Amino acid sequence: MAMASLTRRKALQLLSRYSLSLTSSKGFAAAAGSEDNDVVVIGGGPGGYVAAIKAAQLGLKTTCIEKRGSLGGTCLNVGCIPSKALLHSSHMYHEAKHSFASHGVKFPSVEVDLPAMMGQKDKAVANLTKGIEGLFKKNKVNYVKGYGKFVSPSEVSVDTMEGGNTVVKGKNIIVATGSDVKSLPGITIDEQRIVSSTGALALTEIPKKLVVIGAGYIGLEMGSVWGRLGSEVTVVEFAPDIVPTMDAEVRKQFQRALEKQKMKFMLKTKVVSVDTSGNGVKLTLEPAAGGEQSTLEADVVLVSAGRTPFTSGLGLDKIGVETDKIGRIIVNERFATNVQGVYAIGDVIPGPMLAHKAEEDGVACVEYIAGKEGHVDYDLVPGVVYTHPEVAYVGKTEEQVKAIGVDYRVGKFPFLANSRAKAIDDAEGLVKILAEKESDKILGVHIMAPNAGELIHEAVLALQYGASSEDIARTCHAHPTMSEALKEAAMATYDKPIHI
């Protein structure tokens, strides 16, 4: 009996010792107090949650801190995922209204049920965020919900969502706090009439007139959503071109495609002021180079002028972490800052502000921490604009190839000559390949097509392994598929295509 009582007391002592590491909800551990982690990740977005899971998989005791209380970051909650849900839903509506009849599918009328469309989007987001929580449990990642900031290079003070405070300690701390909407001088975003991408994903009615400030990925995607649903969309851009990172030839075709969808563009145009005193919104514009002013009226204005690193309020200055003039954290090739044990990944460091780049950063950073080797080649991070048609690209544009002075060949193939594209009556676009003239090594691939975002990965793999255009051309592609256009463009690069 005495032995049993002693055993019971020991068990209670052990339970008491570790009770601080259990949260009151969701069954997640919250590594508080004196218990050190091998890795602490501040931020639960694509970079942060992937880094946390990878660290746990490598046997490192890991805690992830997320202020939103919902994992997945901007991308999953108010970015990539909800926007793609609305892009798909709005495309289905547009197809039903404009294309189904030519395929022999007819019905008296079709209408938008906006609450149902938003509900489908919200359901997708909720399921995916819960899925990440499940992955945390599976991989034994501790999850703390709250706002974290440094108190020392090895300690993070967290103001929890429940109203308390805890200190999380770690031998290695990764900053993965992502980015925020970039504001414009004199324009106040209220998420009602002047909205960011977050507000544009949650409008309660279809605006008659939508003005988009900024002709980048996000602005064109959200403009496409509301344009398909019936809004008159005007895109105002200070620069002379849309999507400046895109190959110029492809960009021109892309802009024409959007204009055929009734999207209007005002390039080389500056927004001087925005007036919300009336029922709508009145914008005062002038040429970027200066000149006579004009006005433009809208029901809703979407500010889509880019994103800025979210690094303020984290206590980085308190521990001496160096940042550049726009707030990005300076890191070396191992993602380490100038402060021992502090690392940074994703949108808070230089490089493309893309979710998939952040994920690669997260894996490589943790591999370095674990004593392994990691690697991310920012020149081979694909970019995708998820409009219709989509545009996807990897490697160098023709302008970049010319700038470095390399002799090169160009091979192009239009989807108008692709049998699958013709069969489904969706043949707008092309594939363009750039290859070094002497070696035939592929330098860049650019695709405009309905599913360009899926087709581009064959090209990413080719560039990753230093393939030639002939390598792709001599690889058997299933028929009939859209991917045959990539094969034909490769044939056109080193020799001649068959079907044009």
From TrEMBL:
InterPro entries: Class-I_Pyr_Nuc-Dis_Oxidored (IPR050151), FAD/NAD-bd_sf (IPR036188), FAD/NAD-binding_dom (IPR023753), FAD/NAD-linked_Rdtase_dimer_sf (IPR016156), Lipoamide_DH (IPR006258), Pyr_nuc-diS_OxRdtase (IPR001100), Pyr_nucl-diS_OxRdtase_dimer (IPR004099), Pyr_OxRdtase_I_AS (IPR012999). The active site is at H479 (proton acceptor). The active site is a redox-active disulfide bond. Disulfide bonds join C75-C80. One of its GO terms (cellular component) is oxoglutarate dehydrogenase complex. Residues 381-490 form the Pyridine nucleotide-disulphide oxidoreductase dimerisation domain. Its EC number is 1.8.1.4. GO terms for molecular function: dihydrolipoyl dehydrogenase (NADH) activity; flavin adenine dinucleotide binding. Keywords: Disulfide bond, FAD, Flavoprotein, NAD, Nucleotide-binding, Oxidoreductase, Redox-active center. Gene3D superfamilies: 3.30.390.30, FAD/NAD(P)-binding domain. The keyword Nucleotide-binding applies. This is Dihydrolipoyl dehydrogenase. Residues 38-362 form the FAD/NAD(P)-binding domain.
